[in-house]
Write a structure and sequence with these properties.
This protein is of the alpha/beta class and about 300 residues long. It has 10 helices and 14 strands. The chain has helices at about 5-15, 35-45, 65-70, 75-85, 100-105, 115-130, 150-155, 200-205, 265-280, 295-310, and strands at about 20, 30-35, 55-60, 70, 90-95, 110, 135, 165, 180-185, 190-195, 230-235, 245, 260, 285-290. Strands 1, 2, 3, 4, 5, 6, 7, 8, 9 and 10 form a 10-stranded mixed beta sheet that branches. A 4-stranded parallel beta sheet has the order 11-14-12-13. About 50% of the residues are buried. Bound molecules: threonylcarbamoyladenylate and magnesium ion.
Length: about 300
């Protein structure tokens, strides 16, 4: 299966009920028409994801949110204005259009406008064909690393996609970790999954305190083990000969250790994180030691992913 660049062809595939993997600035998504139950069922089958884990609906323009959500609080509109298109998903009360097969039976729906020209182009071509939105989880097998390149999508899914499905190539994802998920169904916003839009940024825009999340809400990323390569991940220990090593560039590589990445800051760390761990699997390394960065709020999101990758 070869990645394509034709957005109209990809949008037609979506409208015909096929799957389209596409780049976003966070990670690659596996998209289907969010109003088509059979197409959405194929996302779950392809990923082997349990069907009670809800999907994010992707749209290209804020106005389209009204097809999917109701009773949108003012602070959610402020967040949308400030950070969309961007690495942020808002959880809102669902409309009639957001059926149980999208929301996992929950009364809420997740919405995002991604900031990537290929994603936005695909979403608007799909809208031009009458589409209301594209449901898209990360384009990996359930529990595995999210893909940040078209090649990684092929590694994850090529043997599971059909001949009518498509993969769009848009280069490497710039942010590299999944969007911040913000619950906007309560008086105060709360973060269900940390990402590049941080608590500090949310407070600055809304003037509100970010409250503790309600963990009765199902977020698949909240599972203990997730985002995992085949290699065993160990955090903040000293790597031994023959083991993989990922750390900020100022950390030296001990002798005989395989350096998988040397990012200069947390932004670059997030960007290369999943691809570095994929490299470990390509090299068939048994173990990777990662020195968890700290210092800013993006580090919080990186640590969240690494703790889940390291869980046994
Ligand atoms: O950056 C991203 O968000 C990427 C790109 C492709 O947009 N998408 C992504 O989707 O990470 P996925 O399905 O791998 O993770 C979405 C998370 C899941 O953990 C899901 O449980 C949660 O969003 N979610 C979706 N709808 C929800 C809802 N109504 N309530 C609570 N959590 C929800
Ligand atoms: Mg995912």
């Amino acid at each position: 299966m070869e990645p394509i660049n034709d957005l109209k062809e990809a949008a037609r595939a979506l409208a015909s009920g096929h799957l389209v993997a596409f780049p976003t600035e966070t990670v690659y998504g596996l998209g289907a028409d969010a109003t088509n139950p059979a197409a959405v069922a194929r996302i779950y089958a392809t990923k082997q994801r349990p069907t009670d884990h809800p999907l994010i609906v992707h749209i290209d323009r804020f106005e389209r949110i009204n097809s999917w959500a109701i009773e949108i609080p003012d602070y959610a509109k402020d967040l949308a204005k400030a950070f969309w298109p961007g690495p942020m998903t808002l959880i809102l009360q669902r409309s009639e259009t957001a059926k149980d097969f999208i929301t996992g039976g929950q009364p809420t729906v997740g919405i995002r406008i991604p900031n990537h020209p290929v994603a936005l182009g695909l979403l608007s071509e799909f809208a031009a064909l009458g589409g209301l939105g594209v449901a898209a989880p990360s384009a990996n097998r359930f529990g595995k690393l999210s893909p940040t390149t078209a090649k990684a999508v092929l590694t994850e899914l090529s043997d599971r996609l059909g001949v009518e499905d498509k993969i769009l190539d848009g280069g490497a994802s710039e942010v590299g970790i999944e969007s911040t998920i913000i619950d906007c169904t309560k008086e105060l916003p709360s973060i269900l999954r940390p990402g590049a839009v941080t608590a500090e940024m949310i407070s600055a825009v809304t003037g509100l305190r970010v409250s503790e999340p309600d963990w009765s809400i199902r977020v698949s990323g909240a599972l203990e083990k997730h985002y995992a390569p085949n290699a065993m991940i160990e955090l903040d220990t000293r790597p031994k000969q023959g083991e993989g090593f990922l750390a900020l560039s100022h950390e030296a590589t001990p002798p005989g250790v395989i350096r998988l990445g040397a990012p200069v800051d947390t932004a670059e760390f997030a960007k290369i994180l999943y691809d570095s761990l994929r490299k470990a699997d390509e090299l068939r390394l048994a173990k990777v030691v990662v020195l968890v960065p700290n210092g800013d709020e993006l580090a919080v999101a990186i640590e969240d992913r690494l703790r889940k990758a390291a869980a046994r």
